[in-house]
Design a protein that fits this description.
The chain is an alpha+beta fold. It contains four helices and seven strands; from the N terminus they run E-E-H-E-E-E-E-E-H-H-H. A three-stranded antiparallel β-sheet has the order 5-6-7. A two-stranded antiparallel sheet has the order 1-2. A hairpin with a 7-residue loop joins strand 3 and strand 4. The longest helix has 16 residues. The termini are far apart.
Length: about 170
């Protein structure tokens, strides 16, 4: 057991495995199925897969990756810095990615697998970013047109302004 002294206080450092043993079944971010199903969903911001597992949990792992929606558009990519675990305020570093889908995926790929930092979460982070960007894009509305002879006759009537003429 390691002890860190800060002034007159001595703080114990817990390993990630010990933290996982404490947090595994009870956590603020854990949503359990109340209908008797066995699936548990982890909603922590640094959990890109949503699975309640040690490898995906962003709360206990010293290295974690998170993807969330930006304020107006784009994606916020969050990385947990293991060297700053003593200072909770600066534990995570955030980058706003808003130039489009391909540059966003390239940035996520280069910061995870390309940087040798949690390469196992690269595909999950890119999938979550893709879902967020697709939701922000919205649906295209298509004008309803009538096909065939009736459509052509309606188009001709609209062009001739049949309804606007006074009789």
């Amino acid at each position: 057991q390691h002890l860190v002294t800060t002034g007159s206080l001595q703080l114990a450092i817990m390993s990630a495995e010990l933290q996982w043993a404490v947090v595994r079944k009870n956590s603020r971010y854990l949503n359990k199925n109340l209908c008797g199903g066995r699936e548990e969903i982890d909603t922590h911001p640094l959990n890109v897969t949503g699975k309640n597992s040690f490898s995906a949990n962003g709360l206990v792992n010293p290295k974690a990756v998170g993807v969330s929606a930006g304020a107006k558009s784009g994606v916020v990519f969050t990385v947990k810095r293991p060297s700053k675990t003593r200072n909770p305020k600066s534990t995570t570093a955030q980058v706003k990615l808003f130039r489009g889908a391909r540059p966003t995926f390239a940035a996520i790929r280069s910061q995870t697998a390309g940087n040798y930092y949690r390469g196992d979460l690269t595909q999950a982070a890119m999938a979550k970013a893709s879902v967020i960007l697709r939701a922000q894009r919205g649906k295209k509305t298509k004008a309803h047109t009538q096909k065939g002879r009736k459509g052509r006759s309606m188009a001709a009537m609209i062009e001739a302004n049949v309804w606007d003429k006074e009789e």
